[in-house]
Amino acid sequence: MKPKTLSGSGEAKDKPTLKDRLREILKRLAGYLKELAKKGAAALPGFIGSVVGFILKKAGEVVGYVAEHLIILLILIVTLILEYIRKRF
Q: Count of domains in the chain?
């Protein structure tokens, strides 16, 4: 349940949670990567443009998927931290 706040007019509004904000940021990043894939494919010649466009498109899809399934992002972050600690000590 989202916390409620009062706006200047006295109406109760839903305040976006951290999860909602993170999801929105990841969705925007996915959109940017997909747009970059389209521009990259058009700007680079032939096969190189196709490869770069494909990689950026897939990166955008992965970020979009993670935006919908935030538990995967949490698991990734925890795993990276644990690996860093394990290698450091």
A: 1
